[in-house]
Specification:
Length: 286
């Protein structure tokens, strides 16, 4: 399975995005543990979660708690698994319409990161991302809190998510070597972040594609996947594998964290690390 470096970690280029296992329409905790175990048993060594991956009617942080339960009950080498989490978002379920709200105040980020470490059952979080800029708080103030968290040992390394080129530069000025990764949306239906993908590469940072398959809801621009379906038919694989392989081919610093509700989908996605697309196929896919 393809491995790549995120800061000090050598981990699988294909990780598991935990979000669908604990937000709306999840299939329950047991299916979540089964899905994480299937991924780990197949060799996946990168799990991505967040303080905010929970849904209405339950507790907060159920995503992080699910990851802990899965790892506690797994018989494989726990120390090989990179667990990344994020702070800066929370959910709001008033009037029955779930929203993703931001809170980038330093005191909130610090409180949530300490809660994340507790929920994950670790002394220090492997990789802590600032989840999303909060327009009410100067970006540098939020990032200073992330620096404090690394310096206090709450997290070992730091990342930024949903960040522009300018914000990556601000984060790098403040975090220095503590900053190891940028996690942004990137997929065939979301290429407008390519500038940040390339910028991360130039700076020696990992670039982690979120919603690499277009998201857990059916994408509106479904036809943009048609060229990937054609290549997939020639290789005799799912088009999702071709999408992930195309993303991984954007640079040696690129990672993907496809989500899954069940073992079958993540087991298929994990094969993308071994799928090689020809230069002609890559240039045709754009
Ligand atoms: N940083 C951020 O702000 C942010 C925002 C959103 C997401 N994320 C992260 O990115 C991760 C992935 O994003 P996502 O879950 O929204 O969307 P996604 O990975 O683009 O798509 C997930 C969906 O694709 C399906 N799928 C996955 N692999 C497949 C395969 N090989 N064949 C067929 N179907 C497949 C899954 O189906 P099934 O349901 O059938 O399993 C799931 O519903 C999240 O879990 C989260 O960790 C981060």
């Amino acid at each position: 399975m393809l491995h790549r470096h995120i800061g000090p970690y050598n981990t699988t280029a294909v990780g598991l995005g935990e979000m669908p296992l604990t937000i709306e329409n999840n299939l329950g905790e047991d299916k979540g543990v089964e899905t994480i175990h299937a991924a780990l048993d197949a060799g996946c060594r990168h799990l991505d979660t967040a303080w905010a991956y929970y849904c209405s009617g339950g507790e907060e942080q159920t995503g992080e708690k699910l990851v802990r339960r899965a790892l506690d009950g797994w018989k494989g080498p726990r120390e090989e698994v990179l667990v990344a989490t994020k702070v800066g978002h929370y959910r709001n379920f008033t009037d029955g319409r779930p929203t993703w709200d931001v809170d980038g105040r330093p005191e909130s980020l610090i409180r949530h990161a300490k809660e994340s470490a507790l929920a994950l059952g670790v002394d220090a979080i492997d990789l802590l991302y600032f989840h999303r800029p909060d327009p009410k708080v100067p970006y540098a103030e939020s990032v200073e809190a992330i620096r404090e968290l690394v310096d206090e040992g709450v997290a070992k390394t730091a990342g930024v998510s949903n960040a522009s080129v300018e914000q990556i530069d601000i984060a790098h000025d403040i975090l220095g070597d503590r900053l190891v990764a940028v996690q942004n949306q990137f997929s065939p239906i979301w290429k407008q972040t390519r500038d940040t993908l390339q910028h991360a590469g130039r700076m020696g940072l990992a670039f982690v594609c979120w919603s690499p398959l277009g998201g857990y809801r059916k994408p509106k621009k479904e036809s943009l996947f048609d060229p990937f379906r054609e290549v997939a038919a020639r290789h005799g694989v799912s088009y999702q594998q071709v999408v992930l392989a195309w993303e991984l081919a954007q640079g040696d610093h690129v990672f993907v964290i496809p989500g899954a509700h069940r073992p079958a989908t993540i087991l298929d996605s994990l094969k993308a690390g071994d799928l090689r697309l020809s230069p002609e196929e890559l240039s045709a896919l754009g």
